[in-house]
Amino acid sequence: MTSEESAEIAEQAKPQRLKDLTLAPVRIEREVLPPTSLRQVRDQYRELLSQVKNKDILADMTYRAADLEMLLAEQAQEQGESVPSANYYQTAIDEYRQLLANYPLAPDNEQVLYQLSRAYDLQGQGQQAIATLEQLQQRFSNSRYVQESDFRIGEHYYAQGDYRQASDAYQRALHSKQHDYRAIAAYMLGWSELKRQSYQTSLQAFSQMLDISLARINLNDINGPLAQLGKGSKKQVQDTLRVMALLFSYQGSGEAIIDFYSEYGARDYVYLVFDELAQQYLDDSRFKDSADTYLSFATWQPQHDKAPEFYIKHIDAYVLGDFPTLVLPAKQGFVETYGVNGAFYSKWQATRRQQVHHYLQTYLTELAQSEHSLAQTLAQQLSDTTRPDMTKRISKQSQQAFLNASRWYQEYIDTFDDDTAVQMRFYLAEALRDAGRHKMAIAAYERFAYQYSEHADAADAAFNALLTYASLIDKNPSADWLQKRQLSREAFVKTFDQDPRALDVAEVMMQSRFDEQDYHAASHWAQWLLAQFSDGEDDPAHALKERGAQLVLSHSQFALEQYVQAEVGYRTLLASISADDEESRALRERLAATMFKQTEQALVTEDFTSAIAHLQRILTDTPDTLVRTAAQFDLSTYLLRVGNYAEAIIQLSDFAQRFPEHESAGDIPGKLLFAYEQSGRWLPAANMLLQRWQQQPDSDTGREALYLAAEYFQRGGETDKARLTLRDYAHSYPQPFDLAVEARFRMSEFYRHSGEDSKRRFWLQKLIDIDKQAAQRTQRSRYLAAMSALVFADDARHKFDTITLSLPLERSLSKKRSAMQTALARYQQVVDYGIAEFSSAATFQLGEIYRRLATDLMDSSRPQGLSALELSQYDMLLEEQAFPFEEQAIDLHELNAQRSWQGLYDQWVQHSLDTLAQLVPARYQKSEIYEELSL
Length: 935
Hints:
Elements: H1 3-13, H2 38-49, H3 55-79, H4 90-102, H5 109-123, H6 126-139, H7 146-160, H8 163-174, H9 182-195, H10 199-213, H11 231-251, H12 254-264, H13 270-283, H14 287-300, H15 307-320, H16 324-338, H17 350-384, H18 388-415, H19 419-434, H20 438-451, H21 458-475, H22 479-495, H23 502-515, H24 519-532, H25 540-559, H26 563-575, H27 582-604, H28 608-621, H29 628-642, H30 645-658, H31 668-679, H32 682-695, H33 700-715, H34 719-732, H35 737-754, H36 757-773, H37 779-802, H38 809-832, H39 836-858, H40 868-897, H41 907-919, H42 921-924
Helix pairs in contact: 2-3, 3-4, 4-5, 5-6, 6-7, 7-8, 8-9, 9-10, 10-11, 11-13, 13-14, 14-15, 15-16, 16-17, 17-18, 18-19, 19-20, 20-21, 21-22, 22-23, 23-24, 24-25, 25-26, 26-27, 27-28, 28-29, 29-30, 30-31, 31-32, 32-33, 33-34, 34-35, 35-36, 36-37, 37-38, 37-39, 38-39, 39-40, 39-41, 40-41
C-alpha cells in the first residue's frame, strides 16, 4: 500500500463533524409509475434468474416465477386466449416439476405440490392431480391442505364411480382436525355410501352432515330453522333430509327413524326428518303413511315442542285422505294426551297450553257432539224397535254414548272458561239426564239455569230440572226430594216469571188463594197470570182462566173510565175467542166504544195526533162496528188538518169506494185533489183533472183542468202524457190567448228536448201565426214569435252557408243569391218584431251573410287556362263584386255595435265588435291608452 493510499484511508476514517457537512436541500416530487402487467413481472423475473448466484435466493425466485406462470395461465384461461391444445398450465406444470426435481427437500414443496395438483386439475389431468395430492399427503402429513386434498381426492373418485375410495377420502376429510370441508364431506360421504348401497352408513353420514350444519341455529325459529342458513347450505340440508326420508321409507318409516336415532343418539333436529318423510308421503297421496309418521314422532317424544303439532298434522292427514273412521279416534287420542286430564297439561306453562287450546276446543266439541248425536240416534232406534234382544243392546249402547258425551262436555268445561263452556253445561245436563243419571243431571241443570239465568237455554234447563225431579220422585218419593222440588218451583217462577211454563207452576198458588176468597190476592195472581199469558195460547184450561179473569177486570175499568186498560182487556178477550162466537160482536162494539171515548178525550185538549191514532185503530181493529163510518170520515178530516196527506188519500179513496151513497161522499173528490196537490203526487192529481175535463170538456172548469193536468203530468215525470194532454189543449182552446200561446210554446219545448226538429218547427210556426192573427198581441206573444222567427232564419242561413261557389260561377252564384235573399228576409222579420234580444242576433247574422258572400266570392274557383294577366283581371272583377257586400257587412255590424250606446250589450253586440276589429282594424282594433296621474 502506498503512502497516498494510506492517507486516503485515514482521511475517510476520520469522524465527520456537523460543521464539516454541507447539506443541500432535497426536493421530493411525486412520480406516478405506470402499471406493470403480470407478463412484465414474469419477464423481469426471468432476466433476474440468470443473474442471481445465491442458491437460496435463486430457489425462492424460481418458486415465484412458477407462481407467476400459474397466475398467467389462469388469466389466459379466463380471457379465452388461444393456446395450442389449450395447454394453459403446461409451463407452470413444467416449472413446478422442475422445482421439485431441483429442490426435493425444500420446505416450500408443500405449496409447490398443492399448486402443481391445481395446475394438473385445471389442465384436465385428473390422475396426475390426484397422484400429486397423495404425494403431498405422504410428504406433509400435517399440511394445511390435507383436508382439502382428501375432499378433492374423494371428488375425483366419486366422479370416476369408485365410491369405495371416494368414501375413504371423504371419511378422512370429515375426521380432519380442520373444519372447512366437514359438512360437505359428510354430505358427499352419505351419497358415496348410498351409491354403495350401505344405507345405514349413509344415514350416519347424512346425520353427521346435519349435526354440523344445524349445530348453531335455533331449531324453534318461527320462520323455520332452515331460513337461518345460507342458500347453498340450505339446499344441501334440504337434499339431505329428502334422501334420509327416502331411505327411512324403505326401512320402516317412522319406526325406522326411531330405531336409528335410538342407536345413533337423539338429536333436536330429528323432527325435521319425520316432517320431511311425512310430507313426501303426502306428496305421493299416501295419507295413512304420512299420518303414521307424524304420530310415531308424537308418541315417541310426546313432550317435544313439536309433538302436539305433529299429532295435529297426523289428524289432518287422515282428513285429507278421507279416513273418517280414523279421524275421530285420532282426535280423542290428542285430547287424552294433551288435554286437561292428560299427563302434560298440568305441567305446562300458560303459553304452552295456549298453543293447544284451539285444537282442544275444536276436538272436544266434535267428540262431544259426535257421541251425543250417536246416542240420540240409538235412542231413536230404541223407540222404533220391538225386539227384546235388540232393545237391551241398543239401550246399553245409547246409555254409554250419552255418558261418553257427558265426559267430553265435562272436560270442555274443566278446560275452558268462556261462553262456549257455558253452553256445554247445558249439554252436559242433557246428556246426564238421557243417560239416567238423574241426581247429577238435576245438579247440572240447576247450576246452569241459576248461575247463567240470562242465557237463552236457562229457562229450559230449570224446567228440565223440574221434569227430572218428577222422574226421580217416581222412584223415590221422599219428603226431602219433594221439598227440593217445591223450592225449585219457586225459584223457577221467581227467576223465569216471563216463561210461559211458569203459568203451570204458579197455577196451584193462584187456585189456593181464590179458594180462600182472598180476592185482592186472587186478583193479584190473576193479573200476574194475565201478564204471563202469551199471545196465541192454545191450552184450553189456561184460556178459560184467562177469559174469566179478564172479563171482570175489563168491565170494571170501563165503568171507572179507565178506557186504556179496558181496551187492553177487551182485546185480550177477543183474541181468546172465535170471531163467530156470540159474544164476539158485543165485545168488538165495546172495544170500538173504548177507542172512540179515547178519541173524545184527546179532542178535548186538541190532541189531534192521539185522536187520529185512536180512529185508525177503530178502522183497523173493529172495521165492522157501528161507529166505523163516522170514525173514517172524521179520520180523513183530521189527517188533512195535520198535513198527513198520504194517509188522508188512502182513507178518502177507501171511503169513496166503501160508501158511495153516503151523504158525505160528494166532498171526497175535492179533498182528494187537495191532498194530491199538497203531497206532490202529481200523476194521480193529473188523472183526476183529466177525468174532470172528460166529464165537462165545454166548461171553463174542464178547460182549466186539462191545462193543469198537462202541467201535473210533466211534474210527475210523465212527459209523453203531458205532451199529449197539452196537445189536446192547444188544438181545442184558442182562448184565453195567453194560455193558448203558452200551450204552443210548451209543445215546441217538448220537441226541442226530444230532438224532433220538424215537430218543433210546426209549433214554432203556430206561435208566429197566433201572434200575427191576434187582435191584441202581448209582449209575451211577440217575444215567442220573434224567438220562433229566429229559428227559421237560422235554418235559412244554414242553407245559404252550405251552397258553395263553383264553376260556372254564374249558375252557383245565382243559387247563392237566392238563398241569401231568403235568409235576409227571414232575419229582417226577426228585426221587425222589435225584441232587442233577438234583433241583435238577427242583425249580426245579416252582417255575417254579406261578409260570407264576399268571402265566398274571393275564395271561389278560378277558370282553367287563364293567363297571368287574365287571372289578375279576373281577381279584380271578383274584388269589385265582393267589395259592396263587405261594405254592407260593415254597415250592419256597426249598426249592431251602436246598440251598446243605447244600453244594450249582449253576446251578439260583442260578436259584431269582434268582427269589425277584423274587417276595419284601423278603426276598431285600437289599444286603450292609460294615462298615469301623479298625485
